[in-house]
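Much of what follows relies on a compact textual record of a protein's fold. Here is one such record, which you should read through line by line:
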Amino acid sequence: LFLFHQEVISEESEEESNGVNLMEFSDEILLHILSYVPCTDLVLNVRRTCRKLATLCLDKSLTHTVLLQKDYKVNKDKVKQLMRDIGREIYQLNMAGCYWLPSSTIDYVTWCKNLVKLNLSGCHVTSLRLSKMLSSLQHLRSLAIDVNPGFDASQLSSECKATLSRVSELKQTLYTPSYGVVPCCTSLEKLLLYFEILDRSREGFMLSGQLMVGESNVPHYQNLRIFYARLAPGYVNQEVVRLYLAVLSDRTPENLHAFLISAPGSFAETGATKNLLDSMARNVRLDALQLPKAWINGSGLLQHLKFNNPFYFSFSRCTLSGGHLIQRVINGGKDLKSLTSLNLSGCVHCLAPESLFRKAEDDIDSSILESLVVSCCNLRHLNLSAAHHHSSESIGNHLCQLLSRLKHLLSLALPVCSITDVGASVEKPPSTPNLVPQTFGRKVRIGVQTYPRNLGDQTNQKIESSVFWALMGSLRFLETLEIIGSSFSSAMPRNEPAIRNSLPPCVRAQSVGDSEVAAISQLTYLQSLTLAQLPNILTGSGLVNIGLQCQHLRTLSLANLGMMGKVVYMSALMDMLKHCKCLRDLRLEQPYFCAGAQFFQALSHCSSLQRLCIVSRSGTLQSDAVMSFMASCLEVIMCHMFMGESLTVCKNLQQSIVRSFQAERPALNVVIFPLLHEDLTEVIRDVPMRHLDEITLFKSRVAEEPPNLWW
């Protein structure tokens, strides 16, 4: 906006300038540049600078689709003005996660008479407001909403139901047992369901999975092509999703080509679900599949299911062996070029010929991985985390060497023990300073070797000849990378108290440290990086290389690096942060982390930072430093800190931040709370789902869902 303003002034004054005048560019180039400017800025600010921009900013290519989902500066007044100015030109509107906007803001959506696609996930919408809004949107075909306690389908008008009857795509997030608007959507082709129902109310009462009175209407699935359900932990979510599936088990849609259910923990198969799967095996050919592990383990289901041109498979946490994977899914190693996304997270035997007599720590069968790589040569997203994938000493058959053939990979998740060189891993483990204590214990002062900060200063050429270094060099266009310890578990699980002890890292992972982190700096286009439970981090010098070379990095998550009793990489982290100008999300999980003045001063260099989350058992913070950081980093709208400070200190700091910055930052969400406090789960439940799901809770996100499942 500033650059446009300056150019306009320069043009009007007719003064010679050494720079390029933007207004001399063609309309096509200017429209491309303007496409990167938030729509609210285009309509409310940029178009008022000159006549030419006034015309271009209202071009259909810029107003057809309006994205407000991460425009954290937008408020009710801006939405009102935006809808008033271009409402009739908007065909797609995404307001997902705009939790800070009052529910009355939704009333302005009624001005968008030509809307075809609308996403209100995470917005406050009552039954009556939803009814009024949908009654005026006769062209709507795609809708995403939340169903909260108090939702009453009987309040939906006949005009609203008429609109819903034409909707072919529905995404519904449930916070209460309900069918929501599903029974009204008689033309559904795509149904996405997110179950976020808690087992207990705030008052401590157990909730039931039975639907509310008046919700006995039956969903209409006859035209369904895509069915997706993601369940948060809890038995109530399982009870409710079974009610949705009951209709499918009676009659399986003939055009169904994607059937996906993501369920944590144990989700037992019933007679109804077995009938559903048998019907699917007889009547449909799938392109995408994900099932609860209990539905696949020990069954011959995969042998009978038929696939057309599959693009997504997820067998997360299943006991599927590599032999079954090759024979039943990849058709004995035949061509499967259509597959672009594969999630094998937690499949401990997926790279072994059989699982009956195999230990999880045994070496993988490289021929299985080679068949996978050859058959699925167009994979873009691959998740092999949460398992021990140990390569043998066979030359040329290391996991990293085989994966380097997948030239189209955009995102990759690997266990730490899979990236170590076999020669290094079978040698005697490093001396005591290099090992991670298996329990937290007391702080111990240990001298560590000083590593050079810049890669070019390193004289040890063995680093650049490692298999992981070669892998990183071959995946030049990788955008997301996760390296997670196979036994790592976050101190912040979803619906239970914080974990107080962590499991020790895999023995094969003991040598993974600074040099492997330095190898990641070859990924020039890296946007998201997760590193968890790397035991041999001594100084964190590799982080500096990443900060210097990976200039597109937007998301960084670091957890349990090096020794658990001391943050050995703090100096390197602060050096790294000074170079991360594009960083927007930062999550740190490390015991004894000191969030003090020096750390926040370094973090202040991240001028684009929007969200910060720190999880630290026995960690400390300096309130003055936090306040100074919030004052200097104007884009920060989320600050979550779960430390070892007292409840009083946490509450006082949280109140100070909210009081000082809430007025200027309408989307500001602040949670500062003792990590081990018994009320942590109650605090977590009030965090907006966007932040909770994307950053606060630790999880592997590679191939978590099919690509382009929704917007």
User: Anything to note?
Assistant: The longest helix spans residues 235-250.
